[in-house]
Amino acid sequence: MLAKDFVLYNLTILMSCNVLGLVISILPIYFKRLLKYRIQNKKIDSKVFYSRLPLICFNIFSVALLSSVGLYLIFPIFDSSLEFQPFVILIQLLAILFADDFFFYFLHRWMHENKYLLKKVHSVHHRAFSPLALEYLYVHPFEWMMGYTGPFIGIALISVFSPVNCWAFWIYMLVRNIHELEIHSGFKSTISHWIPFWGENEHHDLHHAKLNGNYSSTFKIWDQIFGTIMKED
Asked: What whole-number distance in Å separates Cα of residue 136 and Cα of residue 154?
């Protein structure tokens, strides 16, 4: 497989997930019966959501561009044979997810505890008190740029020991993007409750509602370890 093909497949995953996110976002706007499945009982203002789409779209295409360039440059550390090795894929997938979320936890917590960053950067994301799925990318561009460091740390650590399996990275992209859409959807969790340490929708939605605590995303174990888990009143 060539580097351009690897990047193209990654872009396909990224853009497909965000098209899905747009659909999930507008469903409760036009189908009011779905509101009973949302965590927060708050009215959805469609005008506000649509006014946020320009920044969301800018971030989507910026992420696509920057990640494509980055992945193209580091392609030599990936295993381009496309050999499907289930055990290797599972171990590397978990390694990237844990490295990414561990980094995200402290980055996210720092953006709340540093008053300057909270006011100038992270407050943009928190204008969505009861978010819709695609608002996971309603953020200051500097925020997602910092956040993208996490998975590259995981990839770099894996590459020290072995080539990074392309399938592991593609599955990571799919899981991470779908999970971000899910926890920002505002809908009540279904199967997430049954996955150990998994950050379910209610965990992150409570963070948006109350702003402090519940800083982790994929694995809520970090909040449990570092004492920042929040409980509903």
From this structure: 22
pLDDT digits (tens, 9 = 90+) for 35-55: 888 888 878 888 999 999 999
Residues 212-226: tens digit of each pLDDT: 889 998 888 999 999
| pLDDT for residue 233 is more than 70 | no
b/e map 29-52, b = 16+ CB within 10 Å: eeeeeebeebbeeeebeeeebeeb
* 187 phi, psi to nearest 5 deg: -90, 150
Task: Judge residue 113's burial from the number of C-beta atoms within 10 Å of its C-beta, 0-12 exposed, 13-18 middle, 19 or more buried.
Answer: exposed
In degrees and rounded to multiples of 5, residue 165 shows phi and psi of -70, 130
Burial of 212 (0-12, 13-18, 19+ CB in 10 A): exposed
**Closest Cα partner for 3 from 63, 92, 79?**
79
For the packed helices 46-74 and 3-30, what is the interaxial angle rounded to 10 degrees? 170
What is the spatial distance between Cα 40 and Cα 189, in angstroms, rounded to a whole number? 13
Instruction: Give the pLDDT confidence score for residue 52 in this predicted structure.
Output: 94
Residue extents of the structural domains in the chain: 3-226
Residues 6+ apart with CB under 8 A from 49: 25, 26, 29, 132, 135
Q: How far is CA 34 from CA 26, 30, 38, in A?
A: 11, 9, 7
